[in-house]
C-alpha cells in the first residue's frame, strides 16, 4: 500500500510533500538533488526496498525537496538555508523534536550542515555514498554532464547506467532513467545542479556532534570511496562501514548488509519499543497530551549517554503507569517525551496531574546534596547555547536555568512539562496496523507543551471548558501566539500543586 502524501509549508512559503511509514524512532531521509518522487518511488523495487527495510523497526520520514517530485516546483532558492527550511517544515509538522537524519549522495552536504548547526535535534547522522566538498568533476561523468542541457533523455539514461553502477542491468536502468525524468524537469535540474556545484561544507565537519555512521560501497566510482574515508576522519567519533558493490543506490545489491549496519547503529541507545496504542476512531473528539523532559540535552551532557538513558527509562515507567491508571492511549514516545490521547478531558487532566505529582515525589526522595566532586565537575563545564529553533527554545531557555538549579539537588532530578489540547485529530494506522494521530489538534498540543516550564501543565481553553466544574484549578496565562498558527490560543496553567495543598 502506498503511503499517504501530506504537505508542510516552509517559513518562506514553499509547499513540501512528505509521508511517513512505520513506527518508532524517526529516520528522516530527504531526496538527493532532485531525484525524488514520493509516489513513483514506491513503484520501483530497488528504491522501495530500502525504505521498507527502515520502516520495519522505525518511522521513516521521506520528503521531496523543493523543486522536484510532488513538492512545489516553481522555486529558485536552493541554498543550504533553504534545505534546512524544507527539513524543519516537515519535522515540525510531525511534532518531532529529535530524529535521525540520513543524507545520501548529493543531499549529504545539506544533512552535514544541518547536523552541525542543530546538534540538539539530530540524534544520529547517517551518510550514504556522499562527500562534503564541491560536486565532483570526474572523467567518468564529464561526457554525461555535457548532455545535461543538450539531450535530457540521454543524460538520464547515462546517469542511471554509469553513475549508479547499473551498467549490466539494462531494463532496470532504463526504468530508473524514466523515473528520474518524472522527478524533475530538465530546466529545474540545471538550476539545482548549478547551486549544488558551489556547496562546500568541509569546514563544518569538525562541528558535527551527533553520532555519525558513514556508509560506502568500495566499488562505487562516484563519489569515490576515499571521500568516505575523509568524512570519517574529519567528523569527531564517526565510524566507517565499507560494503561491497558498484551501485550508489542502497536498495540495489546486498541490502541485508546495508540494513544490518544501519540497524546496529540506530539501535545504540534507542528507547525500548512502546506498546501499541489503542485503535482510535478517525475524527473522534480526543484530548491530546504531550510530555517533555526539561533540559534533557543538558542532562545527557552532564550524565553521559548510559546514565541519561537510565533516567529516561524511569521517566517512561512513571508516565506509562499514569496513562494506564487514567485510561490514556500511548500514541508514541519520542525519546524524552510522550504523545497520548484520551476520550475524556477530565481523565487527561487527572493523568497530567498524576504525572507531575509522581515526579515531584520521586525528586523529593533524592539526596539533597550531590557528591562534592561531581558538583565541581558540573560547575566547571560550560553551559550550551540556546537553540534558535522555536520548538526547542523553551527547553533551552529553561534548561540553562535548571542546570544551575540542579547543582543543589541530585543530578537525576526529572522535571517534566505537559501540554494539552482537544479536537478531532486524524487517526490513521501505519502499515503494521498501529494507530497514530495527525492534524491541527495534535500540532497545537505539541506547541503548548513547548511553552511550559518543568513542573508545569498548560492547557488550551477548550480543555479548561470541557473540564469545567470538575475540581481543577486554572490560572489564566492569556492569549499566546503559537508557531505555525495565525490565530493566538488562550492558555491556562493547571495549578496542581495548589490543589494538592488545598
Give structural notes:
The protein is an alpha/beta fold and 502 residues long. The protein folds into two domains: 6-136 and 200-267, Rossmann fold, CATH 3.40.50; 286-501, Nucleotide cyclase, GGDEF domain (Alpha-Beta Plaits, 2-Layer Sandwich), CATH 3.30.70. The protein is 40% helix and 19% strand. It has helices at residues 45-55, 80-93, 108-117, 139-145, 152-163, 170-183, 186-197, 225-234, 255-267, 296-303, 305-325, 345-364, 372-379, 390-405, 440-451, 461-466, 496-501; strands at 6-9, 15-21, 26-30, 59-63, 99-104, 122-128, 212-217, 239-243, 286-293, 329-333, 337-342, 416-423, 426-429, 435-438, 457-460, 474-480, 489-494. α1 (45-55) runs parallel beside α9, α4 runs antiparallel to α5 and α10 packs across α14 (390-405). The chain is globular. The chain starts with 5 loop residues before the first strand and ends with a helix. Residues 272-282 and 369-411 have low confidence and may be disordered.
CATH topology category name of the largest domain = Alpha-Beta Plaits
The CATH architecture assignment of the largest domain turns out to be 2-Layer Sandwich
Alpha carbon gap, first and last residue:
55 Å
Please name the fourth-level CATH homologous superfamily of the largest domain: Nucleotide cyclase, GGDEF domain
Secondary-structure class: alpha/beta
Level of helix content?
Answer: 25-40%
Instruction: Please tally the helical runs, counting DSSP H or I stretches of 4 or more residues.
Output: 17
Characterize the main sheet: 8 strands, mixed
Total domain modules: 2
- Enumerate the spans where pLDDT stays under 50 for 5 or more consecutive residues: 272-282, 369-411
Number of beta strands: 17
Order of strands across the biggest sheet?
1-2-4-3-5-6-7-8
Q: Mean pLDDT score, rounded?
A: 78
The radius of gyration is: 24 Å
Q: Regarding CATH, which class of the largest domain?
A: Alpha Beta
Which range does the strand content fall in? 15-25%
Oligomer description: single chain
Principal-axis shape: globular
